[in-house]
Specification:
alpha/beta, Aspartate Aminotransferase, domain 1, Aspartate Aminotransferase, domain 2, 2 domains, binds pyridoxal-5'-phosphate
Length: 396
C-alpha cells in the first residue's frame, strides 16, 4: 500500500500535466495546427548555438574521468564561473563555495527546503505562485502560508509582515513570476529585506529565478543579491537556455547570509541524500562554456505581444506580463475557472485555471508556442468571447 501522503497527491494530480496530455490527444484528432495548447511552459525556442557547440565539443573530447562521480556540489571550475558572473551582476564578492550545482530549480528548491525546515516550520508564498512549491514544502514537513498580492499581482510587505510567526523560516519569491509575469521592484526587495531583518529570528528569502533572463520591453530584472541579505537563489537553465529536459541549475547562498557556512554545507549534503548525488556532469561542463549565452528573447516578446492582443482584442482582460513565459488573464465574471476552461476547450483552446496557482478568477496561458499557433488561435478567442456575449475590442 502506498503512503497516505502519496495517495492524496495522486487524487490531486497536476491539472497542468493533464492538460498537456489532453493537448496531445486533441492534436492527433484535429491536427496540430488546429489545437491551441497554451497549457505548459515548455520553451519551444532551440537552445543557443553556443550551447550546442559546447555539447558537441565536450562529447567528442577525450577527457579522462568525465563520467565519474565528483564533489556533491559539482565541478569547482563551473561553480567558480557562476560565482564570478553573479559577483559581476551584484557587486558582491561571491566565492565558488556559495554555489551547489543541482538537477534544475526543482531539485534546488528541495535541497534548500530540506536544509532549512524542521517539521511544522512555515514558508510564506506569494499568490499566485507555482503550485509545485506545495509539494516541495510538504516533502520536508513544512507548512505553506499563502500571502495574497494586489490586483496587479504586486506583493506588499505589510501583508507579508502580517503572516510572519515564530515558525516562519522562509519566504519564497519568484520574479519574473510564474504565472503572472510580474517583475518585483527594487523597492519591494529592499522593503522585504528590512521587514525580515526586523523579525526576532532569521528568515531566509528563497529567490526562485528560472525566468530571470526572460524580461521584455527593455526592463532589467532587479538583482535580489543587491537588496536581500539572507538570500538563497535557486536558478535553472530550463527556461533561459531552453534546456528543461537536461535538468541543470544551481543554488547560491548570498555571502551576506547569516547562516552562510551551515547552509552551503547543508545544501551540499541534501543534494546527495535527496537522491541527485550531483548535477549532470556533461551539462555542468556545457554550462561553464556557454554561461553568457542567451536565447533571443525578442522571439518571446513578439509572442507575448501577439497573444496579449488576441486576448484583449477579443474582449478579455489581462495584466501585460513584463517577463517569464505566461499571461495570467482574468476569467470572465460569473464563471468559475473550470467553466471557463471548458468553454475554451470546446474551441480547442487549452488553458490552466488560476486555482492551479492559488488564485482563482484567472487563467494562465503559456506563450512559448509557435507563432503559427498564436496566429491560428485568434479565432478561438473571438469564438469564446462570442459564446459568452463579450464584446470584441477589435475586429478578427
Ligand atoms: C517558478 C518555477 N520554479 C521552478 C520550476 C522548476 O524548474 P526546473 O525545470 O528547473 O526544475 C519551474 C518550472 O516550470 C517554475 O515555473
Amino acid at each position: 500500500m502506498i503512503s497516505k501522503n502519496m495517495a492524496k497527491a495522486l487524487l490531486g494530480g497536476s491539472k497542468i500535466r493533464k492538460m498537456f496530455e489532453e493537448g496531445n490527444r486533441l492534436k492527433q484528432i484535429y491536427g496540430p495546427e488546429n489545437v491551441f495548447d497554451f497549457s505548459i511552459g515548455n520553451p519551444d525556442l532551440e537552445p543557443p548555438v553556443e550551447v550546442k557547440e559546447a555539447l558537441k565539443e565536450i562529447a567528442s573530447a577525450d577527457i579522462p574521468g568525465i563520467h565519474g562521480y565528483m564533489s556533491n556540489n559539482g565541478y569547482e571550475t563551473t561553480r567558480a564561473a557562476i560565482a564570478k558572473k553573479r559577483s559581476e551582476e551584484s557587486g558582491l564578492d561571491i566565492d565558488a563555495s556559495a554555489v551547489c550545482m543541482t538537477v534544475g530549480a526543482a531539485a534546488a528548491m528541495n535541497d534548500v527546503l530540506h536544509s532549512l525546515l524542521d517539521p511544522e516550520d512555515e514558508v510564506i508564498v506569494l499568490a499566485p505562485y507555482f503550485m509545485e512549491y506545495n509539494g516541495y514544502i510538504a516533502n520536508h514537513n513544512g507548512k505553506v502560508v499563502i500571502c495574497d498580492t494586489d490586483e496587479k499581482f504586486i506583493p506588499h510587505v505589510e501583508d507579508i509582515a502580517a503572516k510572519i510567526t515564530d515558525r516562519t523560516k522562509a519566504v519564497i519569491i519568484n520574479s519574473p513570476n510564474n504565472p503572472s509575469g510580474v517583475v518585483y521592484s527594487e523597492q519591494f526587495l529592499s522593503e522585504l529585506n528590512s521587514v525580515l531583518k526586523s523579525a526576532d529570528h532569521t528568515i531566509h528569502v528563497i529567490s526562485d529565478e528560472p525566468y530571470i533572463d526572460l524580461a521584455y520591453d527593455g526592463i532589467t530584472v532587479p538583482c535580489a543579491l543587491k537588496f536581500i541579505d539572507n538570500l538563497i537563489i535557486c536558478f535553472s537553465w530550463s527556461k533561459s537556455l531552453s534546456l528543461p529536459g537536461e535538468r541543470i541549475g544551481y543554488t547560491l547562498v548570498s555571502p551576506k547570509n547569516e547562516d552562510y557556512n551551515d547552509l552551503t554545507a547543508a545544501i551540499t549534503i541534501s543534494n546527495r541524500t535527496l537522491g541527485s548525488v550531483n548535477a549532470p556532469a556533461i551539462w555542468q561542463r556545457v554550462i561553464e562554456k556557454s554561461l553568457y549565452a542567451k536565447v533571443d528573447v525578442s522571439n518571446y516578446e513578439k509572442r507575448r505581444n501577439m497573444l496579449y492582443s488576441n486576448i484583449v482584442d477579443a474582449g478579455f482582460d489581462a495584466v501585460k506580463p513584463q517577463g517569464a513565459l505566461y499571461i495570467f488573464m482574468n476569467t470572465p465574471e460569473g464563471l468559475t475557472d473550470d467553466e471557463f476552461a471548458d468553454i475554451c476547450h470546446e474551441e480547442n483552446l487549452l488553458i490552466v485555471g488560476g486555482g492551479s496557482f492559488a488564485k482563482p478568477g484567472y487563467a494562465r496561458l503559456a506563450f512559448c508556442v509557435s507563432e503559427t499557433t498564436i496566429v491560428n488561435s485568434r479565432k478561438a478567442f473571438f469564438a469564446v468571447a462570442e459564446k459568452l456575449g463579450i464584446e470584441h475590442r477589435s475586429s478578427l
